Amino acid sequence: MAVGASLLVVLGRNPMHSVLLLIVSFAALAAIYIGLEAPFAAVVQIIIYAGAIMVLFLFVVMLLNAHREDDAAPPAGVTSGPLRAGGVLAVLLVAELVWALRRAARGGDALLSAGPGADPAALQSVRALGNRLFTEYSLAFEVTSILIIVAMVGAVVLARRES
Amino acid sequence: MIPVYVAQLGMVLAVFVMLLLSAAVMVYSERKVAAFIQQRYGPYLVGPRGLLQPIADVIKLMFKEPLRPVAADKAIFFLAPILSATAAFAAFAVVPFGAESTFFGLLDEPIKLQVADVNVAVLVVFAITSISVYGIVLAGWSSNSKYSLLGALRSASQMISYELSYGMALAGALVLAGSLSLTDIVNAQQGAWFGFIPRWFVFVQPLGFVIFMIAGVAETNRAPFDFPEAEQELVAGYHTEYSSTAFMMFFLAEYINMVTAAAVAANLFLGGWHGPFLPEYLGWIWFLVKVAAILFFYIWMRWTLPRLRYDQLMQFGWKVLLPLAALNLIVTAAGVIYFGN
Amino acid sequence: MVPLGHYLILSAILFATGTMGVFLRRNVITVLLSIEVMLNAVNLAFIAFGRTLGSVDGQVIMFFVVTVAAAEAAIGLALVIALFRHRESLNPDVFTSLKW
Question: Strand, helix or coil at C54?
Fold first, then answer.
Protein backbone atom coordinates (compact mmCIF):
# COMPACT_ATOMS: atom_id res chain seq x y z
CA MET A 1 0.00 0.00 0.00
CA ALA A 2 2.92 2.27 0.68
CA VAL A 3 4.23 1.59 -2.79
CA GLY A 4 0.86 2.10 -4.40
CA ALA A 5 0.26 5.37 -2.62
CA SER A 6 3.74 6.65 -3.40
CA LEU A 7 3.38 5.74 -7.05
CA LEU A 8 0.15 7.64 -7.20
CA VAL A 9 1.77 10.60 -5.48
CA VAL A 10 4.33 10.78 -8.21
CA LEU A 11 2.07 10.04 -11.12
CA GLY A 12 -1.10 11.83 -10.09
CA ARG A 13 -2.35 14.72 -12.15
CA ASN A 14 -3.69 16.83 -9.38
CA PRO A 15 -1.22 18.11 -6.78
CA MET A 16 -3.96 18.24 -4.18
CA HIS A 17 -4.56 14.55 -4.58
CA SER A 18 -0.82 13.98 -4.49
CA VAL A 19 -0.60 15.59 -1.08
CA LEU A 20 -3.42 13.46 0.26
CA LEU A 21 -1.92 10.32 -1.18
CA LEU A 22 1.37 11.15 0.45
CA ILE A 23 -0.46 11.33 3.75
CA VAL A 24 -1.85 7.87 3.07
CA SER A 25 1.64 6.67 2.26
CA PHE A 26 2.92 8.08 5.55
CA ALA A 27 0.19 6.30 7.41
CA ALA A 28 1.15 3.05 5.70
CA LEU A 29 4.76 3.57 6.66
CA ALA A 30 3.75 4.30 10.23
CA ALA A 31 1.96 0.98 10.33
CA ILE A 32 5.10 -0.69 9.05
CA TYR A 33 7.11 0.97 11.80
CA ILE A 34 4.77 -0.41 14.41
CA GLY A 35 5.38 -3.83 12.93
CA LEU A 36 9.09 -3.13 13.21
CA GLU A 37 8.70 -2.61 16.95
CA ALA A 38 9.24 1.09 16.75
CA PRO A 39 5.98 2.57 18.03
CA PHE A 40 7.55 5.85 18.97
CA ALA A 41 8.86 6.30 15.44
CA ALA A 42 5.42 5.56 14.07
CA VAL A 43 3.73 8.12 16.25
CA VAL A 44 6.42 10.72 15.59
CA GLN A 45 5.98 10.13 11.87
CA ILE A 46 2.27 10.81 12.13
CA ILE A 47 2.56 13.83 14.37
CA ILE A 48 5.33 15.61 12.51
CA TYR A 49 5.21 14.39 8.96
CA ALA A 50 1.55 13.68 8.38
CA GLY A 51 0.29 16.13 10.92
CA ALA A 52 2.34 19.23 10.36
CA ILE A 53 4.42 19.12 7.20
CA MET A 54 1.57 17.95 5.06
CA VAL A 55 -0.67 20.66 6.45
CA LEU A 56 2.01 23.09 5.30
CA PHE A 57 1.93 21.56 1.85
CA LEU A 58 -1.84 21.76 1.79
CA PHE A 59 -1.76 25.41 2.76
CA VAL A 60 0.67 26.21 -0.02
CA VAL A 61 -1.34 24.27 -2.57
CA MET A 62 -4.44 26.14 -1.55
CA LEU A 63 -2.70 29.47 -1.39
CA LEU A 64 -1.18 29.16 -4.84
CA ASN A 65 -4.29 27.60 -6.25
CA ALA A 66 -2.15 24.83 -7.64
CA HIS A 67 -4.83 22.21 -7.58
CA ARG A 68 -5.25 22.38 -11.25
CA GLU A 69 -2.61 20.48 -13.05
CA ASP A 70 -0.44 22.78 -15.09
CA ASP A 71 1.91 20.17 -16.36
CA ALA A 72 -0.11 19.93 -19.49
CA ALA A 73 1.51 22.74 -21.46
CA PRO A 74 5.25 22.86 -20.83
CA PRO A 75 6.70 25.88 -22.56
CA ALA A 76 9.99 24.32 -23.60
CA GLY A 77 8.46 21.61 -25.74
CA VAL A 78 9.17 18.70 -23.44
CA THR A 79 7.78 15.63 -25.11
CA SER A 80 6.97 12.31 -23.57
CA GLY A 81 10.34 10.97 -24.66
CA PRO A 82 12.02 12.01 -21.42
CA LEU A 83 9.06 10.58 -19.57
CA ARG A 84 9.53 7.16 -21.02
CA ALA A 85 13.28 7.32 -20.57
CA GLY A 86 12.80 8.37 -16.99
CA GLY A 87 10.48 5.48 -16.31
CA VAL A 88 12.94 3.05 -17.77
CA LEU A 89 15.75 4.53 -15.70
CA ALA A 90 13.70 4.23 -12.55
CA VAL A 91 13.01 0.59 -13.22
CA LEU A 92 16.72 0.11 -13.87
CA LEU A 93 17.51 1.76 -10.55
CA VAL A 94 15.19 -0.55 -8.68
CA ALA A 95 16.52 -3.57 -10.50
CA GLU A 96 20.07 -2.58 -9.71
CA LEU A 97 19.34 -2.03 -6.03
CA VAL A 98 17.50 -5.31 -5.75
CA TRP A 99 20.30 -7.08 -7.55
CA ALA A 100 22.87 -5.59 -5.20
CA LEU A 101 20.83 -6.68 -2.21
CA ARG A 102 20.36 -10.17 -3.54
CA ARG A 103 24.04 -10.48 -4.27
CA ALA A 104 24.92 -9.40 -0.74
CA ALA A 105 22.48 -11.91 0.68
CA ARG A 106 23.80 -14.72 -1.42
CA GLY A 107 27.37 -13.76 -0.63
CA GLY A 108 26.85 -15.03 2.88
CA ASP A 109 25.94 -11.78 4.48
CA ALA A 110 23.72 -13.07 7.21
CA LEU A 111 22.55 -9.60 8.05
CA LEU A 112 20.05 -9.33 5.29
CA SER A 113 18.13 -12.43 6.13
CA ALA A 114 18.23 -11.82 9.84
CA GLY A 115 15.10 -11.30 11.78
CA PRO A 116 14.92 -9.08 14.83
CA GLY A 117 18.20 -8.65 16.61
CA ALA A 118 18.94 -8.97 20.28
CA ASP A 119 16.55 -7.62 22.84
CA PRO A 120 13.68 -6.10 20.91
CA ALA A 121 12.16 -5.06 24.18
CA ALA A 122 14.89 -2.48 24.59
CA LEU A 123 13.81 -0.89 21.37
CA GLN A 124 10.38 -0.22 22.65
CA SER A 125 11.55 1.77 25.54
CA VAL A 126 11.18 5.42 24.79
CA ARG A 127 13.37 5.97 27.77
CA ALA A 128 16.23 4.22 25.98
CA LEU A 129 15.65 6.36 22.95
CA GLY A 130 15.68 9.53 24.97
CA ASN A 131 18.77 8.40 26.75
CA ARG A 132 20.60 7.78 23.52
CA LEU A 133 19.34 10.99 22.03
CA PHE A 134 20.64 13.14 24.81
CA THR A 135 23.97 11.45 25.43
CA GLU A 136 25.51 10.16 22.25
CA TYR A 137 23.61 12.35 19.86
CA SER A 138 23.38 15.46 21.96
CA LEU A 139 25.48 17.50 19.57
CA ALA A 140 23.27 16.53 16.64
CA PHE A 141 20.27 17.43 18.75
CA GLU A 142 21.52 20.91 19.48
CA VAL A 143 22.56 21.50 15.90
CA THR A 144 19.15 20.35 14.72
CA SER A 145 17.44 22.83 16.98
CA ILE A 146 19.56 25.61 15.52
CA LEU A 147 18.67 24.31 12.09
CA ILE A 148 14.98 24.56 12.88
CA ILE A 149 15.31 28.13 14.07
CA VAL A 150 17.25 29.07 10.96
CA ALA A 151 14.66 27.38 8.78
CA MET A 152 11.84 29.23 10.53
CA VAL A 153 13.47 32.59 10.10
CA GLY A 154 14.41 31.79 6.52
CA ALA A 155 10.94 30.68 5.60
CA VAL A 156 9.38 33.80 7.03
CA VAL A 157 11.85 36.05 5.25
CA LEU A 158 11.52 34.27 1.93
CA ALA A 159 7.78 34.23 1.87
CA ARG A 160 7.32 37.82 2.85
CA ARG A 161 5.88 40.20 0.34
CA GLU A 162 8.16 42.87 -0.97
CA SER A 163 6.60 45.84 0.75
CA MET B 1 -15.31 -18.63 30.93
CA ILE B 2 -15.71 -15.91 28.37
CA PRO B 3 -12.55 -15.76 26.27
CA VAL B 4 -10.59 -12.57 26.33
CA TYR B 5 -11.01 -11.63 22.71
CA VAL B 6 -14.75 -11.67 23.00
CA ALA B 7 -14.42 -9.34 25.91
CA GLN B 8 -12.14 -7.09 23.87
CA LEU B 9 -14.65 -6.93 21.07
CA GLY B 10 -17.33 -6.19 23.59
CA MET B 11 -15.16 -3.39 24.94
CA VAL B 12 -14.78 -1.87 21.50
CA LEU B 13 -18.50 -1.97 20.95
CA ALA B 14 -19.23 -0.61 24.39
CA VAL B 15 -16.86 2.32 23.92
CA PHE B 16 -18.35 3.12 20.55
CA VAL B 17 -21.89 3.09 21.83
CA MET B 18 -20.85 5.07 24.88
CA LEU B 19 -19.30 7.75 22.71
CA LEU B 20 -22.39 8.06 20.60
CA LEU B 21 -24.56 8.29 23.66
CA SER B 22 -22.26 10.85 25.17
CA ALA B 23 -22.59 12.97 22.05
CA ALA B 24 -26.35 12.84 22.44
CA VAL B 25 -26.10 13.72 26.11
CA MET B 26 -23.78 16.59 25.24
CA VAL B 27 -26.22 18.02 22.75
CA TYR B 28 -28.98 17.97 25.29
CA SER B 29 -26.96 19.27 28.20
CA GLU B 30 -25.43 22.00 26.09
CA ARG B 31 -28.80 23.38 25.21
CA LYS B 32 -30.14 23.04 28.70
CA VAL B 33 -27.13 24.57 30.39
CA ALA B 34 -27.02 27.36 27.85
CA ALA B 35 -30.66 28.00 28.51
CA PHE B 36 -30.23 28.15 32.26
CA ILE B 37 -27.27 30.48 31.93
CA GLN B 38 -29.39 32.70 29.76
CA GLN B 39 -32.30 32.44 32.18
CA ARG B 40 -34.67 30.57 29.99
CA TYR B 41 -35.91 27.01 29.90
CA GLY B 42 -34.32 25.35 26.93
CA PRO B 43 -35.95 22.41 25.21
CA TYR B 44 -38.77 20.96 27.25
CA LEU B 45 -41.37 19.90 24.72
CA VAL B 46 -39.90 16.73 23.34
CA GLY B 47 -40.15 14.00 25.94
CA PRO B 48 -40.11 14.55 29.67
CA ARG B 49 -38.06 17.69 30.40
CA GLY B 50 -36.89 17.69 26.82
CA LEU B 51 -34.80 14.55 27.22
CA LEU B 52 -35.66 13.20 23.80
CA GLN B 53 -34.48 16.38 22.09
CA PRO B 54 -31.23 14.91 20.72
CA ILE B 55 -33.17 12.12 19.07
CA ALA B 56 -35.42 14.64 17.43
CA ASP B 57 -32.35 16.54 16.23
CA VAL B 58 -30.79 13.45 14.74
CA ILE B 59 -33.97 12.47 12.94
CA LYS B 60 -34.36 15.95 11.55
CA LEU B 61 -30.80 16.06 10.29
CA MET B 62 -31.01 12.69 8.68
CA PHE B 63 -34.11 13.55 6.76
CA LYS B 64 -32.75 16.73 5.28
CA GLU B 65 -31.82 16.81 1.65
CA PRO B 66 -28.12 16.18 1.13
CA LEU B 67 -26.72 19.03 -0.89
CA ARG B 68 -23.49 19.24 -2.72
CA PRO B 69 -22.17 22.27 -4.56
CA VAL B 70 -21.54 21.58 -8.21
CA ALA B 71 -17.96 22.72 -8.36
CA ALA B 72 -16.91 20.83 -5.28
CA ASP B 73 -14.25 18.19 -5.53
CA LYS B 74 -16.41 15.11 -5.15
CA ALA B 75 -14.03 12.70 -3.53
CA ILE B 76 -12.65 15.10 -0.96
CA PHE B 77 -16.05 16.56 -0.22
CA PHE B 78 -17.30 13.13 0.63
CA LEU B 79 -14.21 12.17 2.57
CA ALA B 80 -13.81 15.16 4.85
CA PRO B 81 -16.65 14.58 7.35
CA ILE B 82 -15.80 10.90 7.50
CA LEU B 83 -12.22 11.78 8.33
CA SER B 84 -13.30 14.17 11.06
CA ALA B 85 -15.63 11.70 12.70
CA THR B 86 -13.21 8.79 12.41
CA ALA B 87 -10.37 10.74 13.96
CA ALA B 88 -12.61 11.82 16.81
CA PHE B 89 -13.62 8.25 17.63
CA ALA B 90 -10.16 6.85 17.13
CA ALA B 91 -8.56 9.17 19.64
CA PHE B 92 -10.67 7.70 22.39
CA ALA B 93 -9.41 4.21 21.65
CA VAL B 94 -6.38 4.55 23.87
CA VAL B 95 -8.02 6.36 26.74
CA PRO B 96 -8.53 4.14 29.78
CA PHE B 97 -11.57 4.76 31.87
CA GLY B 98 -11.35 2.28 34.66
CA ALA B 99 -9.13 -0.09 36.51
CA GLU B 100 -8.65 -3.65 35.40
CA SER B 101 -11.69 -5.66 36.19
CA THR B 102 -13.02 -9.11 35.64
CA PHE B 103 -16.64 -8.13 35.65
CA PHE B 104 -17.46 -10.15 38.73
CA GLY B 105 -15.55 -13.22 37.67
CA LEU B 106 -17.09 -13.58 34.24
CA LEU B 107 -13.70 -13.37 32.64
CA ASP B 108 -10.69 -15.56 33.08
CA GLU B 109 -8.32 -12.71 33.62
CA PRO B 110 -8.76 -9.04 34.15
CA ILE B 111 -8.94 -6.81 31.13
CA LYS B 112 -8.38 -3.16 31.13
CA LEU B 113 -11.26 -0.83 30.53
CA GLN B 114 -9.58 0.55 27.48
CA VAL B 115 -9.82 -0.37 23.87
CA ALA B 116 -6.10 -0.71 23.38
CA ASP B 117 -3.30 -0.33 25.85
CA VAL B 118 -0.49 1.13 23.87
CA ASN B 119 2.85 1.97 25.36
CA VAL B 120 2.84 5.39 23.84
CA ALA B 121 -0.83 6.15 24.40
CA VAL B 122 -0.38 9.83 25.07
CA LEU B 123 1.38 10.35 21.79
CA VAL B 124 -1.30 8.47 19.92
CA VAL B 125 -3.92 10.86 21.21
CA PHE B 126 -1.75 13.73 20.13
CA ALA B 127 -1.16 12.23 16.71
CA ILE B 128 -4.83 11.67 16.02
CA THR B 129 -5.60 15.19 17.13
CA SER B 130 -3.17 16.35 14.45
CA ILE B 131 -5.04 14.32 11.88
CA SER B 132 -8.36 15.87 12.76
CA VAL B 133 -7.03 19.14 11.37
CA TYR B 134 -7.29 17.57 7.96
CA GLY B 135 -10.98 16.88 8.18
CA ILE B 136 -11.59 20.58 8.64
CA VAL B 137 -9.16 21.81 6.04
CA LEU B 138 -10.40 19.41 3.41
CA ALA B 139 -14.00 20.23 4.17
CA GLY B 140 -13.39 23.91 3.74
CA TRP B 141 -11.38 23.57 0.60
CA SER B 142 -13.52 21.07 -1.20
CA SER B 143 -16.66 23.08 -0.70
CA ASN B 144 -15.24 25.54 -3.15
CA SER B 145 -16.72 28.52 -1.39
CA LYS B 146 -15.04 31.55 0.08
CA TYR B 147 -16.60 31.27 3.52
CA SER B 148 -15.69 27.66 3.87
CA LEU B 149 -12.13 28.12 2.74
CA LEU B 150 -11.47 31.05 5.03
CA GLY B 151 -13.04 29.28 7.97
CA ALA B 152 -11.07 26.16 7.24
CA LEU B 153 -7.72 27.91 6.95
CA ARG B 154 -8.29 29.90 10.10
CA SER B 155 -9.35 26.83 11.96
CA ALA B 156 -6.37 24.84 10.76
CA SER B 157 -3.90 27.55 11.74
CA GLN B 158 -5.52 27.85 15.12
CA MET B 159 -5.43 24.13 15.71
CA ILE B 160 -1.83 23.65 14.77
CA SER B 161 -0.77 26.65 16.80
CA TYR B 162 -2.43 25.42 19.94
CA GLU B 163 -1.23 21.89 19.39
CA LEU B 164 2.18 22.98 20.56
CA SER B 165 0.97 24.24 23.92
CA TYR B 166 -1.26 21.17 24.18
CA GLY B 167 1.73 18.93 23.69
CA MET B 168 3.90 20.77 26.15
CA ALA B 169 1.27 20.74 28.85
CA LEU B 170 0.91 17.00 28.19
CA ALA B 171 4.66 16.67 28.52
CA GLY B 172 4.49 18.27 31.94
CA ALA B 173 2.23 15.50 33.20
CA LEU B 174 4.41 12.94 31.43
CA VAL B 175 7.51 14.08 33.20
CA LEU B 176 5.78 13.69 36.55
CA ALA B 177 4.63 10.19 35.82
CA GLY B 178 7.71 9.01 33.95
CA SER B 179 5.79 7.04 31.36
CA LEU B 180 3.92 7.57 28.13
CA SER B 181 1.21 5.07 28.83
CA LEU B 182 -2.02 6.61 30.05
CA THR B 183 -2.69 3.73 32.39
CA ASP B 184 0.65 4.30 34.08
CA ILE B 185 0.00 7.99 34.39
CA VAL B 186 -3.32 7.38 36.08
CA ASN B 187 -1.85 4.82 38.42
CA ALA B 188 0.86 7.27 39.39
CA GLN B 189 -1.89 9.42 40.85
CA GLN B 190 -3.09 6.92 43.39
CA GLY B 191 -3.16 7.57 47.05
CA ALA B 192 -3.25 10.82 48.88
CA TRP B 193 -1.04 13.15 50.81
CA PHE B 194 -1.85 13.69 54.45
CA GLY B 195 -4.66 11.24 53.96
CA PHE B 196 -7.11 13.53 52.29
CA ILE B 197 -5.56 15.56 49.47
CA PRO B 198 -5.51 13.19 46.51
CA ARG B 199 -2.30 12.86 44.63
CA TRP B 200 -3.64 14.32 41.44
CA PHE B 201 -1.27 16.07 39.12
CA VAL B 202 -3.45 19.12 39.03
CA PHE B 203 -2.20 20.00 42.48
CA VAL B 204 1.42 19.58 41.51
CA GLN B 205 1.22 21.64 38.38
CA PRO B 206 -1.90 23.73 38.25
CA LEU B 207 -0.48 25.85 35.47
CA GLY B 208 -0.12 22.78 33.30
CA PHE B 209 -3.74 21.92 33.85
CA VAL B 210 -4.91 25.41 32.97
CA ILE B 211 -2.80 25.45 29.82
CA PHE B 212 -4.06 22.04 28.84
CA MET B 213 -7.67 23.10 29.27
CA ILE B 214 -7.22 26.27 27.26
CA ALA B 215 -5.38 24.47 24.51
CA GLY B 216 -8.01 21.74 24.54
CA VAL B 217 -10.75 24.28 24.05
CA ALA B 218 -8.82 25.81 21.18
CA GLU B 219 -8.14 22.43 19.65
CA THR B 220 -11.76 21.46 19.59
CA ASN B 221 -12.77 24.78 18.11
CA ARG B 222 -15.04 25.66 20.98
CA ALA B 223 -15.75 29.10 22.32
CA PRO B 224 -14.15 31.37 23.11
CA PHE B 225 -11.93 30.10 20.32
CA ASP B 226 -14.60 29.21 17.84
CA PHE B 227 -13.90 31.96 15.41
CA PRO B 228 -13.74 29.49 12.52
CA GLU B 229 -17.36 28.71 13.11
CA ALA B 230 -18.20 32.26 13.92
CA GLU B 231 -21.85 32.21 13.31
CA GLN B 232 -22.19 35.90 12.98
CA GLU B 233 -19.41 36.40 10.52
CA LEU B 234 -18.64 33.43 8.39
CA VAL B 235 -22.08 31.90 8.09
CA ALA B 236 -20.94 28.57 9.44
CA GLY B 237 -17.30 28.48 8.48
CA TYR B 238 -15.95 25.26 7.12
CA HIS B 239 -19.18 23.36 7.20
CA THR B 240 -21.27 25.96 5.42
CA GLU B 241 -21.93 23.84 2.40
CA TYR B 242 -22.69 20.64 4.18
CA SER B 243 -26.12 19.48 5.13
CA SER B 244 -27.91 16.49 6.51
CA THR B 245 -25.81 13.50 7.44
CA ALA B 246 -22.48 15.11 6.66
CA PHE B 247 -23.28 18.03 8.93
CA MET B 248 -24.26 15.59 11.61
CA MET B 249 -20.86 13.94 11.24
CA PHE B 250 -19.09 17.22 11.83
CA PHE B 251 -21.24 17.95 14.84
CA LEU B 252 -20.59 14.49 16.16
CA ALA B 253 -16.88 14.90 15.57
CA GLU B 254 -16.82 18.14 17.48
CA TYR B 255 -18.61 16.77 20.50
CA ILE B 256 -16.59 13.61 20.60
CA ASN B 257 -13.40 15.61 20.31
CA MET B 258 -14.57 17.51 23.36
CA VAL B 259 -15.30 14.31 25.22
CA THR B 260 -11.89 12.92 24.33
CA ALA B 261 -10.10 16.07 25.41
CA ALA B 262 -12.03 16.05 28.67
CA ALA B 263 -11.27 12.37 29.20
CA VAL B 264 -7.56 12.86 28.54
CA ALA B 265 -7.51 15.85 30.90
CA ALA B 266 -9.25 13.80 33.58
CA ASN B 267 -6.73 11.02 33.15
CA LEU B 268 -3.68 13.21 33.04
CA PHE B 269 -4.45 15.72 35.70
CA LEU B 270 -7.43 14.72 37.74
CA GLY B 271 -6.46 11.19 38.60
CA GLY B 272 -8.59 9.21 36.17
CA TRP B 273 -10.67 6.70 37.97
CA HIS B 274 -9.25 7.03 41.45
CA GLY B 275 -11.44 8.54 44.08
CA PRO B 276 -12.48 8.12 47.69
CA PHE B 277 -15.33 6.05 49.02
CA LEU B 278 -15.58 3.70 46.09
CA PRO B 279 -13.90 0.36 45.57
CA GLU B 280 -11.46 0.05 42.74
CA TYR B 281 -13.70 -1.72 40.28
CA LEU B 282 -16.29 1.02 40.42
CA GLY B 283 -13.67 3.58 39.55
CA TRP B 284 -15.33 4.36 36.27
CA ILE B 285 -18.05 6.18 38.11
CA TRP B 286 -15.48 8.66 39.36
CA PHE B 287 -14.13 8.93 35.87
CA LEU B 288 -17.56 9.82 34.56
CA VAL B 289 -18.00 12.39 37.28
CA LYS B 290 -14.71 14.05 36.45
CA VAL B 291 -15.31 14.05 32.72
CA ALA B 292 -18.79 15.44 33.27
CA ALA B 293 -17.35 18.21 35.43
CA ILE B 294 -14.86 19.17 32.74
CA LEU B 295 -17.52 19.08 30.05
CA PHE B 296 -19.77 21.26 32.14
CA PHE B 297 -16.90 23.68 32.42
CA TYR B 298 -16.54 23.66 28.63
CA ILE B 299 -20.19 24.46 28.11
CA TRP B 300 -20.13 27.10 30.79
CA MET B 301 -17.17 28.79 29.11
CA ARG B 302 -18.87 28.84 25.77
CA TRP B 303 -21.92 30.69 26.95
CA THR B 304 -20.16 33.05 29.27
CA LEU B 305 -17.09 34.32 27.51
CA PRO B 306 -17.08 36.47 24.40
CA ARG B 307 -15.35 35.21 21.35
CA LEU B 308 -11.75 36.14 20.74
CA ARG B 309 -10.91 37.81 17.48
CA TYR B 310 -8.72 35.76 15.24
CA ASP B 311 -5.54 37.76 15.60
CA GLN B 312 -6.01 38.01 19.35
CA LEU B 313 -6.44 34.28 19.39
CA MET B 314 -3.25 33.61 17.46
CA GLN B 315 -1.26 36.11 19.46
CA PHE B 316 -2.46 34.59 22.67
CA GLY B 317 -1.51 31.15 21.52
CA TRP B 318 1.97 31.99 20.40
CA LYS B 319 3.01 34.81 22.67
CA VAL B 320 1.41 33.88 25.94
CA LEU B 321 0.46 30.23 26.05
CA LEU B 322 3.50 28.73 24.40
CA PRO B 323 6.11 30.45 26.59
CA LEU B 324 4.04 29.60 29.66
CA ALA B 325 3.84 25.98 28.62
CA ALA B 326 7.57 25.82 27.99
CA LEU B 327 8.23 27.41 31.36
CA ASN B 328 5.92 24.93 33.01
CA LEU B 329 7.74 22.06 31.41
CA ILE B 330 11.14 23.32 32.45
CA VAL B 331 10.06 23.94 36.03
CA THR B 332 8.39 20.54 36.24
CA ALA B 333 11.45 18.77 34.87
CA ALA B 334 13.70 20.65 37.27
CA GLY B 335 11.41 19.78 40.13
CA VAL B 336 11.41 16.11 39.27
CA ILE B 337 15.17 16.00 39.06
CA TYR B 338 15.60 17.93 42.27
CA PHE B 339 13.05 16.17 44.40
CA GLY B 340 13.51 12.80 42.78
CA ASN B 341 9.82 11.76 42.85
CA MET C 1 9.31 -12.31 11.08
CA VAL C 2 9.96 -10.45 7.92
CA PRO C 3 13.63 -10.55 7.04
CA LEU C 4 15.56 -7.35 6.64
CA GLY C 5 16.05 -7.79 2.93
CA HIS C 6 12.37 -7.36 2.25
CA TYR C 7 12.23 -4.05 4.04
CA LEU C 8 15.26 -2.86 2.14
CA ILE C 9 13.70 -3.78 -1.16
CA LEU C 10 10.60 -1.86 -0.23
CA SER C 11 12.78 1.06 0.70
CA ALA C 12 14.58 0.81 -2.63
CA ILE C 13 11.31 0.80 -4.54
CA LEU C 14 10.04 3.82 -2.66
CA PHE C 15 13.28 5.64 -3.19
CA ALA C 16 13.23 4.96 -6.92
CA THR C 17 9.64 6.12 -7.08
CA GLY C 18 10.58 9.36 -5.41
CA THR C 19 13.55 9.87 -7.69
CA MET C 20 11.36 9.29 -10.70
CA GLY C 21 9.02 11.92 -9.39
CA VAL C 22 11.76 14.46 -8.88
CA PHE C 23 13.00 14.09 -12.40
CA LEU C 24 9.78 13.75 -14.29
CA ARG C 25 7.24 16.04 -12.72
CA ARG C 26 6.62 19.52 -14.07
CA ASN C 27 5.19 20.99 -10.92
CA VAL C 28 7.52 22.11 -8.17
CA ILE C 29 5.14 21.16 -5.39
CA THR C 30 4.97 17.61 -6.63
CA VAL C 31 8.75 17.61 -6.90
CA LEU C 32 8.97 18.56 -3.23
CA LEU C 33 6.50 15.84 -2.40
CA SER C 34 8.66 13.32 -4.25
CA ILE C 35 11.64 14.42 -2.19
CA GLU C 36 9.58 13.65 0.90
CA VAL C 37 8.85 10.21 -0.51
CA MET C 38 12.56 9.61 -0.88
CA LEU C 39 13.24 10.70 2.68
CA ASN C 40 10.49 8.38 3.83
CA ALA C 41 12.16 5.48 2.08
CA VAL C 42 15.41 6.26 3.82
CA ASN C 43 13.64 6.41 7.17
CA LEU C 44 12.24 2.97 6.58
CA ALA C 45 15.71 1.62 5.89
CA PHE C 46 17.03 3.17 9.09
CA ILE C 47 14.30 1.74 11.27
CA ALA C 48 14.61 -1.68 9.66
CA PHE C 49 18.33 -1.74 10.32
CA GLY C 50 17.79 -0.52 13.84
CA ARG C 51 15.45 -3.36 14.55
CA THR C 52 17.79 -5.95 13.05
CA LEU C 53 20.84 -4.76 14.89
CA GLY C 54 18.86 -4.54 18.11
CA SER C 55 19.83 -0.96 18.75
CA VAL C 56 17.73 2.12 19.24
CA ASP C 57 20.02 4.20 17.02
CA GLY C 58 17.83 3.60 14.02
CA GLN C 59 14.95 5.44 15.60
CA VAL C 60 17.17 8.26 16.80
CA ILE C 61 18.49 8.87 13.31
CA MET C 62 15.02 8.64 11.85
CA PHE C 63 13.98 11.30 14.31
CA PHE C 64 16.69 13.60 12.99
CA VAL C 65 15.84 12.86 9.39
CA VAL C 66 12.21 13.77 10.03
CA THR C 67 13.23 17.03 11.66
CA VAL C 68 15.56 17.97 8.85
CA ALA C 69 12.87 17.04 6.33
CA ALA C 70 10.47 19.36 8.12
CA ALA C 71 12.93 22.24 7.99
CA GLU C 72 13.68 21.57 4.35
CA ALA C 73 10.03 21.35 3.41
CA ALA C 74 9.36 24.67 5.09
CA ILE C 75 12.15 26.44 3.26
CA GLY C 76 11.29 24.72 -0.02
CA LEU C 77 7.71 25.84 0.20
CA ALA C 78 8.72 29.38 1.11
CA LEU C 79 10.90 29.42 -1.99
CA VAL C 80 8.03 28.12 -4.07
CA ILE C 81 5.83 30.90 -2.82
CA ALA C 82 8.45 33.51 -3.57
CA LEU C 83 9.01 32.11 -7.05
CA PHE C 84 5.32 31.95 -7.74
CA ARG C 85 4.89 35.55 -6.78
CA HIS C 86 7.45 36.48 -9.35
CA ARG C 87 6.47 34.38 -12.31
CA GLU C 88 2.94 33.09 -11.64
CA SER C 89 3.89 29.60 -12.63
CA LEU C 90 4.72 26.38 -10.86
CA ASN C 91 6.49 24.77 -13.73
CA PRO C 92 10.21 24.35 -13.07
CA ASP C 93 10.98 24.70 -16.76
CA VAL C 94 9.81 28.28 -16.66
CA PHE C 95 12.55 29.35 -14.31
CA THR C 96 15.40 29.07 -16.73
CA SER C 97 17.39 32.24 -16.20
CA LEU C 98 19.33 33.13 -13.11
CA LYS C 99 18.69 36.80 -13.37
CA TRP C 100 15.37 38.47 -13.69
Answer: coil
Q: Are B131 and A55 an interchain contact pair (Cβ–Cβ within 8 Å)?
A: no
The pLDDT tens digits for B303-337 are: 888 877 778 888 888 888 888 888 888 888 888 88
Q: A–B: how many Cβ contacts below 8 A?
A: 54
When scoring C2, C11, C26 by the number of chain A Cβ atoms within 10 A, the one with the most, hence best to mutate, is C26
- Helix (H) or strand (E) holding A153, with range, is helix A138-159
Delimit the domains of chain B by residue range. Answer: 4-339
Q: Which domain holds residue C38?
A: 4-94
- On the question of pLDDT at A72 being above 60, the answer is no
Q: Do chains A and C touch (3 or more CB pairs under 8 A)?
A: yes
Asked if the C-beta of C6 comes within 8 angstroms of chain A's C-beta atoms, the answer is no
Expressed in angstroms, the distance from the first to the final Cα of chain A is 46
A50 touches chain B (CB under 8 A): yes
- Checking if the pLDDT of B227 tops 80, the result is no
Is residue C79 in a domain? yes
Distance CA C18, CA B231 (A): 44
Please, which residues have CB within 8 angstroms of residue A36's CB and are 6 or more apart in sequence? C7, C47, C48, C51
Kindly tell me the burial class for residue C63, based on how many C-beta atoms sit within 10 Å of its own C-beta (0-12, 13-18, 19 or more): buried
Side chain identity at residue A57, one-letter code? F
Nearest chain C alpha carbon to A84:
C24
Architecture of domain A1-69: Up-down Bundle (1.20)
Distances (CA, A) of C1 to A2, A121, C51: 19, 15, 11
A127: pLDDT strictly greater than 60: yes
Judged by a CB distance cut-off of 8 A, whether residue C65 touches chain A is: no
| Maximum distance among all Cα pairs of chain B, rounded to whole angstroms | 66
* Structural domains counted in chain C: 1
Residues 6+ apart with CB under 8 A from B75: none
Domain extent listing, chain A: 1-69, 125-163
Residue B16, CB-side half-sphere exposure with 13 Å CA sphere = 10
- Residue B167 near residue B175 (C-beta atoms within 8 A): no
